[in-house]
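Example 3.2
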Amino acid sequence: MNMRRLAELPLFQGLDEDGLRAVGAAVVEESVEAGRVLVREGDYSQDLTVIDEGTASVEHDGQELATLEAGAMFGEMGLLRKEQRNATVRAATDMRLIHLTKFDLNRLRGSAPQLMERIEQIVNERS
């Protein structure tokens, strides 16, 4: 993962160099084509996803609720609270995604504690 690009994404902004390196080593990058369902409403969350490039639509009960753009993340609520996904997310354009699993996040608690604090704050704000 390109550390410069990682540092530009809102979730990772302000992390120190060691924290960024730890995150960079843990993330899995993925490219997806437009139209692909990224997550389904009702499934359990296995990872947190950050949009690096592209846009996605958020749908609930078949209705579009929002558009997510580069820098946005999804999956954090279900991952930290072990809840089912409350929406379907579909790639509206070709996309580049960054994934962190629950295991990865637990490992990052020591090397990037600011990241975990940020994710927990976002979850609390969205609740």
